[in-house]
Specification:
Elements lengths: L1 H5 L8 H23 L13 H28 L2 H32 L8 H22 L3 H16 L2 H10 L12 H47 L1
Length: 233
C-alpha cells in the first residue's frame, strides 16, 4: 500500500499528494457549505454550524480506533510488527480527532446550552474513550520492550474500541443533553455529507504520512541498535 501511494502520476505527483490535495479542497468546500450554503437552524441558530465539523471529526476518530481494534486483533494472531505500527499510527490520529471533538462539542454546548461540559452519558463515555487511548499512547512511550508493549497495547486498544458502542447507545439508554438522531433537510444533509468526505480524506492522508513516519523511525532505531551491538562486539 505504501509503495503504491508513492508511485508518481503523469503530472509528477504521488497518490499521497493527490489524496492530500483532495482532502484540502474538500475541506474548503465543506467550510463554504457550512457557513454559506446550509440554512440557519431555527432553534440553535448559528452555533449549530459547528455540527458540520463536530460529527465528521468523531467519525474520523472512530475510524482510527477501528483500525486499532482490527490491527490489534491481527497482531495478537500473527505477531507481525507491521500491524502494531498501523495500530499505533491510527491511535495517535484517533486521540487527535477525539480531542477536537471534545473541544468543538464544548464550544457548541456553551453557545446553545450555556455549559461547556456536563457529566451526561455520551460526553462521559466519549471522555472515557479519550482517556483509554491517551493511556494507550502513554504505554507506548513508557516501555522499552517492543514486543511486550505491542502485546499490551493491542489488548488495551481492543478494550478501548468496545467503548464506542456505549457512546452510540448512550443517547437511547440514558437521558442526557444529546438529542436522538432525526431527519434533516436536504441542504443540511448534503453539507454534512461533503464534510464527512473531507474529514475522512484528511484522516486517510494524515494516516498514510504517519505510518510512513513510524516505519522510518523504527528502521532508524533498528539500525542504531545494530550499530551499538557491533560496536560493543
Amino acid at each position: 500500500m505504501q509503495a503504491g501511494m508513492q508511485k508518481k502520476t503523469a503530472c509528477g505527483l504521488t497518490a499521497t499528494d493527490v489524496l492530500g490535495a483532495a482532502a484540502f479542497v474538500l475541506l474548503g468546500v465543506s467550510v463554504y457549505m457550512a457557513l454559506l450554503y446550509a440554512p440557519t437552524e431555527l432553534i440553535q441558530g448559528e452555533p449549530q454550524r459547528i455540527f458540520y465539523m463536530h460529527l465528521p471529526m468523531i467519525l474520523a476518530a472512530y475510524l482510527g480506533f477501528l483500525i486499532v481494534f482490527v490491527c490489534g486483533v491481527m497482531y495478537l494472531w500473527k505477531r507481525t510488527m507491521g500491524y502494531d505500527i498501523a495500530a499505533r499510527s491510527a491511535a495517535e490520529l484517533g486521540v487527535f480527532f477525539t480531542t477536537l471533538v471534545i473541544i468543538s462539542g464544548g464550544l457548541w454546548g456553551q453557545a446553545v446550552w450555556g455549559t461547556f461540559w456536563q457529566w451526561e452519558p455520551r460526553l462521559t463515555f466519549t471522555f472515557i474513550l479519550w482517556l483509554i487511548f491517551v493511556a494507550y499512547l502513554m504505554l507506548r512511550s513508557a516501555a522499552q520492550d517492543k514486543e511486550r508493549v505491542a502485546r499490551y497495547a493491542a489488548v488495551l486498544g481492543i478494550i478501548g474500541f468496545l467503548d464506542i458502542p456505549l457512546v452510540f447507545a448512550s443517547v437511547y439508554l440514558w437521558r442526557g443533553i444529546h438529542p436522538e438522531p432525526a431527519g434533516m433537510p436536504r441542504a443540511i444533509a448534503m453539507t454534512l455529507f461533503v464534510s464527512m468526505a473531507a474529514f475522512l480524506a484528511l484522516f486517510a492522508y494524515l494516516y498514510v504520512l504517519r505510518v510512513r513516519w513510524d516505519r522510518a523511525k523504527d528502521r532508524i532505531e533498528e539500525m542504531y541498535a545494530e550499530l551499538e551491538e557491533e560496536h560493543q562486539a
